[in-house]
User: Fold these one by one.
Assistant:
Number 1:
Amino acid sequence: ESVGVGEAGGSPVLDGYRHMYSGKVRDLYVPIGDDGVEADDRLLLVASNRLSAYDWMMSPEIPDKGEVLTRLSLWWFDQLADLVPNHVVSTDVPDAVAGRAVVVRRLEMLKVEAIARAYLTGGGLEEYERGGSVSGVVLPEGLVDGSRLPSPVFTPTTKAPVGEHDLPMAPDEVEAELGADVAAEVSRLTRAILARGNEIAGERGILIADTKVEFGVAPDGSGGLVLADEVLTPDSSRFWPAELWEPGHPQPSFDKQFVREWLTSAESGWSRSSGEAPPELPAHVVEQTRAKYVEAYERLTGETF
Ligand SMILES: N#Cc1c(N)ncnc1-c1cnn(Cc2cccc(F)c2)c1
């Protein structure tokens, strides 16, 4: 995640917390006790209403996006609790970020972006087209953009420094970083999380093409892997509407399609290749995008937002 510096809707100042780090769309804070001492076992993970598309920060923000995705991620943590423990401690958070922030256990984070793919697209497709495999896993011949894979494939990357791109990791690199046992468990869990996600989402008309999860371990080394960060949200995963799935070309995004289509339409006056920042999104695109996040939440959880 690159540091979002001074972008619209920056990080709020929160009484009782020190701002620690800003990602593109989320912010991390450290709780400060009444004695002025920073907590060493807790963090506050805040989801903003910022939207990133085409590697640009959109403006204006999407109202309620942070709350919708936080509530969706909390719901997924519950759905996955039989598979893996998680870092969630509490939703007792400052009013300024009510509904879109979570108090979490501070962990020692693994230095691997744990990505799994159930459908082939993006960087995974490009790697497959070069050599018939992805992350060391040989795939069937004849796969195209959007092809469903026989079973989810683990395609880990590095956690690149700010402003650089994450790089694919070969299996031996993951083992060198994590050790063979932890590497195998991270692969197994990441693929199981995506498989479970697609079992549930598929019944509700959403395909999760791929997802990135993050694992940590307790700083004292006790216990095993803990699922951290966010899980199976449209920010950490590619969400596709199931009824439009058609292998052979890029699939429409469940949540970002309105933004993409407006930005690439003549109406926006923007060209992706210009290298210039995109224009402000019109109100109707903001509202339609908000509605897609709410729709994903309501379809998946069965709850009304
Ligand atoms: N989750 C979690 C977590 C944890 N439970 N313990 C220790 N560190 C992290 C942690 C560190 N970076 N990130 C990514 C991240 C998340 C949210 C906002 C950001 F800006 C950046 C996660």
Note: Residues 1, 21-23, 26-28, 43, 45, 87, 104-107, 109, 216, 228-229 surround PZK (CB under 6 Å).
Number 2:
Amino acid sequence: MQKKQKGLVWFRNDLRVNDNESLTNAIDENETVIAVYCFDPRHFEETKFGFKKTEKFRAKFLIESVTTLKENLEKLNITLLVYHQKPEGSIPEIIAQNGINSVYFQEEWTSEEMEVLENIKLKVPDSVLFKASYNQFLFHPEDIPYVIQLIPNVFTKFRNQCEKLTKIRPEFTVKPLFKENLIANETIIPTIQTMGFTDFEMDSRTAFPFRGGEKEAVKRLQNYFWETKKLSVYKLTRNGLIGADFSSKFSPWLSNGSISAKTIYWEIVKYEQKVEKNDSTYWLIFELIWRDYFKYISIKNGNSIFKIGGILEKNYDWKTNQSSIKNWINGTTVEPFVNANMIELQQTGWMSNRGRQNVASFFAKNLYLDWRIGAAYFEAMLIDYDVHSNYGNWMYVSGVGNDPRDRKFNIPLQAKNYDGESNFQKLWLQQKLF
Ligand SMILES: Cc1cc2nc3c(=O)[nH]c(=O)nc-3n(C[C@H](O)[C@H](O)[C@H](O)COP(=O)(O)OP(=O)(O)OC[C@H]3O[C@@H](n4cnc5c(N)ncnc54)[C@H](O)[C@@H]3O)c2cc1C
């Protein structure tokens, strides 16, 4: 008789049960399945630029996301073990104690994530199989019409070819295991305090008044598409600055994988069949392709996305003036529109896309500050931080990435066009300037 196979699903940035290839494969291929998530202490340490890798906003969102994941897995009769420890510390032990044959996880290609995986492999017997899947893309890497090294440096070329030639795969479904699959679990999910932060109430002015987790992501999808039909006007409102509904706000859930880009895509298709298909419904797909594109740029260019010269290896004279950096962070520059956006980020962990483009352009192209410092600050603060989108966009705006036109934003003009009545600036600067 064939030996009983035991699988371990190692969750990282794919914190969901629906449309999760790793989880589906683990259930299909094994008799018993356990799951694990590690709050890696390195993700909360300070980096060389003096900011924590993760600040309180994303830490809280992550705790909420893992809490929901645990509940959802329990409904499938799968136990989620949660550690506040390096994966290299806990995973080899789980493998040894439970006689795990295969480990299932989302493929990551950035150097720190690859190093962690290699460290785990060094500590377990060669017989343990490591099975990675690309859970994070809209266009699966095996389906795009390019070998990675030939991915174009211009987005439009990439998008046109993929739209023409690549079919989006269906979602993965998941079925529960039998009750006895659950195991004793004494691990606990850390609290915001045990992660080293002081608990906080979210600022009521936030444009992102949502919680983490798959359930909340699905609720938002239902609300934005079906209940309010905001999807129908997305292209007209997406450059807004105030409130929850000018854009989808999917990014924090997409970033930690509480929802997949494919799930959103197939729901748009359903919406187009049942409600209407217009420029706005298409434009949300267009933006999801941007998200994919920066992932492909990161696979293609490796660690260059973190280097000062970016993927273009430009040799600009970047400055590191501390008082200019502080003024930018604290919203005390000469530009009220930049200041309002920076205060919003500091108070809430959120900033609109329009805001991000402006403050990043101001940082790199008006103040000539080393763009990696701005990117590292965003990395700490953003609820929706995603390594590929963050560094890809920062390079783009700073003239060392994928913008063929190397634009500089005219901040006062942007403020006039997008905040004509100064409502956004009033909201965040309050009595300071008005
Ligand atoms: C300097 C800078 C840094 C950024 N850092 C991040 C980051 O760390 N994480 C992140 O998710 N996005 C980042 N973005 C992209 C973009 O600002 C956010 O994805 C968007 O504001 C999220 O809001 P939303 O979900 O309502 O977007 P919507 O307008 O509703 O768009 C839907 C989805 O499309 C994707 N998307 C939209 N615009 C972009 C874009 N420019 N690049 C990549 N994907 C996009 C996102 O997944 C988003 O959730 C950055 C942009 C800039 C200019």
Note: The chain has three domains: 6-135, 214-301, 307-432.
